[in-house]
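Running co-folding for glutamine.
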Amino acid sequence: MPKHIFITGGVVSSLGKGIASASIGRILEAKGLKVALQKLDPYINVDPGTMSPYQHGEVYVTDDGAETDLDLGHYERYTNSTLGKVNNVTTGQIYSEVLQKERKGEYLGATVQVVPHITDAIKERIRQVSRGKRYDVILTEIGGTVGDIESLPFLEAVRQFRHEVGRENAIFVHLTLIPFIRAAGELKTKPTQHSVGKLREIGIQPDVLICRTEKKISRSMKDKIALFCNVDKDGVIEARDVATIYQVPLMFKEQGLDAVICRYLHIEYKAGSLHHWDKEVVQRVLNPKKSVKIGVVGKYIALNDAYKSIYEALQHGGIANDAHVSIKKINSEKITAQNSKSVLKGLSGILVPGGFGNRGIEGKLKAIEYARENGVPFFGICLGMQCASIEFARNVLGWKNANSTEFNKKSTHPVISLLEEQEKVQNLGGTMRLGAFPCSIKRESKAYEAYRADEISERHRHRYEFNNAYREEFQKRGMKISGVSPNGKLVEMIELEDHPWFVASQFHPEFKSKPDRAHPLFREFVKASLDYQDPKGLAPRKEE
Ligand code: GLN
């Protein structure tokens, strides 16, 4: 039977519960333990697929096609676990499951209630993660902040779960804030005491407190927190702001969090080592040899979380090239024909990420035109590939009205359009082309240079596709189709023949990049950007 760690958050949101959970996963994996991670989200949407990135941040896609919370991205980046549909549970999923059962008559005779029916369904989902698999530890992060109305059923369910499996099989980790009050020049423990009190009210006594703080927490303050919150002294862990989020596992291990967890969960302690993580990830991030400026042109630029995996994957590409990637976030709605040069000047690479809807499209097209004409490395992802196709059709093939039918149903040259099966779709939730699909790579291509493989597998999340009617004309004019579905029917990758690095994919490579194993396309894109910035043997290139 696997051991369980439940992670809750207190005081305020945005303390980095996802990164804390992923980091605990990392330090346990370093001991050779097999871990899985799971997130319980208290909102009523069945999944975040229908939410705006401004509401929710990025929608992270798994191999099995689940549209999930972006914390699953942290879990996959920090650990080796492959996650899927079972690893993200929402209130919406739980209620629809219980309501379906009720309609079938499965609870015949009973009044269906939050306790026990909803809580039972939640506990069942927690158990499902390990069904048929062999995990040593399952980490379950509970979304929201303690005290919220919405997360109560989840907290009650995990309280019961712990009671059922016993103390040596499940522990509670609470992430909390120790604010620094500048005027008083002091760190304050009171909000943490209240937050732990709130947890105790519902029957949960945390075993470990992870304390987010700007300043060092002294031994005596740690002891005070331990005393007032009723946890062991070594169960109070400081989580100070760090230069890179990849330092968090090291910080936890230094303070012996792994030993504390092993003790509570009766797991035989093995030292384990984070040497590889430290050397190949943290030290490389902290001590880059070069720096390169890459522009990300999208419409959800104001929110950091909206393109989370893209930003992470760019950093990974930097790590692989011993470079710091300085990301310039550019709102595509602000790019016009008049200002595109001045806005984009100075960039050594341009990336256009995925997206939905017409807003900001013209700016993306301008950015792509600039990259294509000036030989600036370009990487288009999903909508980015679709835009690259539209731009090429309009400006190289001369079809001024070329478009995606997502934006103009009456375009004379619909170079991006719906597949027949998508035309019939009525419900918008969970009906896109989702999850991992194989892709065959053409040998003589930048794609092959990056992957060094004839067949790859990448994750998708889109409805529209490259329109096959236009393949030939694109190819004739120098747009290579370098990746297709194995049956040849779907265009998955395109690239310009006559350009240093202009590559675009219908899939989302960013979801499979890891800090110590940069995704090949991101690695090569960053490399091309470095070469553009400083071509070997030539003076640094200047744009007019
Ligand atoms: N809106 C486009 C489609 O549905 C692209 C989606 C995306 O970029 N994820 O095909």
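Result summary
The CA atoms of residues 160 and 183 lie 43 Å apart.
Residues 354-356, 382-383, 386, 406, 461-464 surround glutamine (CB under 6 Å).
Job closed.
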